[in-house]
Amino acid sequence: MTIHDLDTPALMIDVKVLDGNLRKMATYCNDHKLALRPHTKTHKMPEIARLQLQHGAAGITVAKLGEAEVMADAGIEDILIVYPLWGEKKWARLADLAARVRITVAIDSLAVAAGISRAATAAGTEIGIRAEFDTGFHRCGWPIAASSMDEIQKMIALPGLRWDGILVYPGHIMGNQTIREHDIECENETMDALFELLGSASIPYPVVSGGNTPAAFASHRFHGLTEIRPGTYVFNDRNTVDAESAEFANCALTVLVTVISISASRRAIIDSGSKTLSSDPLLSGNRLGYGYVLGHPEFELQELSEEHGHLTIPGSSTIKIGDRLRV
């Protein structure tokens, strides 16, 4: 079978490019003595998670409890969940999982910690915990304040929990190299303030976990990091390229699509919409577009509905119905 035999839309992975991306990140982390715990949110595939471990990852990161269960079923033995878990049923499932594999969760609430503690104690298991702090992304995390130290001290004292350290997610650091220079300086000032508060409260932090893909290869410049959790680097994408952290040649995943309609207003419709591509627009730059059409930088993928992609094309384009493109 060749690419021409595939029906569309078709998700395609270039395994040679994938392997190169895995090797590059593993080498970087080894050279800078950083533990690599990649986030599997981009691929959600046990097969690729195993490849990451074979290339030296210390463990994996997942977003949801269900993802952790799938990875554990596939034989992955060291899993970090970076998502707030609330509810007796989820805590019981977490405790059951902890009986099978080494499991750690990010926590930014004493109430959540208490619930997990009860479940772990009842099940006779131990669950690792990391305190998540908000350094600027403003999604999850304890504020960097003395009041947070008081709650973390109480959390550490709860039974059934294993204190691992702290966790941050600099998701706000998305720009190109010039923009990142300023952002890294600001992040380091924030981290230094956090370390000072932790030290004043006599709270140890053997693990300092952070990192993202756009700034992954500058991780050694972030103060105090011992571990990074990049995710998109396995495939890379338009965001990674615009952030000057990869080139299109490093993009291992593309979607093969077919042009199914062309309007008089020079708009081409492809057979891939938000269900196949993503409902998230380009994050860097001007937040425009939903993908890059390989070989056609003049095309703009400006709108998506569930099953349709709307391409703006120049008047000089010779594209026609039935043509295939890679996004």
Order of helices and strands: EHEHEHEHEHEHEHEEHEEEEE
Cα separation of the termini: 21 Å
Q: What is the CATH topology descriptor of the largest domain?
A: TIM Barrel
**Main CATH class of the largest domain:** Alpha Beta
Largest sheet: 8 strands, parallel
Structure description:
By secondary structure, this protein is of the alpha/beta class. It folds into two domains: 32-242, TIM Barrel (Alpha-Beta Barrel); 252-326, Lyase, Ornithine Decarboxylase, Chain A, domain 1 (Beta Barrel). 31% of the residues lie in helices and 20% in strands. The protein has eight helices and 14 strands. It has helices at residues 15-31, 46-54, 65-73, 88-98, 110-123, 146-156, 177-200, 238-242; strands spanning 10-13, 35-36, 60-62, 78-81, 102-107, 127-133, 161-168, 207-210, 227-228, 253-262, 267-270, 300-304, 309-312, 324-326. It has an eight-stranded parallel beta sheet. Strands 1, 10, 11, 12, 13 and 14 form a six-stranded antiparallel beta sheet that branches. The radius of gyration is 22 Å and the shape is elongated. It starts with 9 loop residues before the first strand and ends with a strand.
Secondary-structure map:
Blueprint: E1 10-13, H1 15-31, E2 35-36, H2 46-54, E3 60-62, H3 65-73, E4 78-81, H4 88-98, E5 102-107, H5 110-123, E6 127-133, H6 146-156, E7 161-168, H7 177-200, E8 207-210, E9 227-228, H8 238-242, E10 253-262, E11 267-270, E12 300-304, E13 309-312, E14 324-326
Parallel strand pairs: 2-9, 3-4, 4-5, 5-6, 6-7, 7-8, 8-9
Antiparallel strand pairs: 1-10, 10-11, 10-14, 11-13, 12-13
Helix pairs in contact: 3-4, 4-5
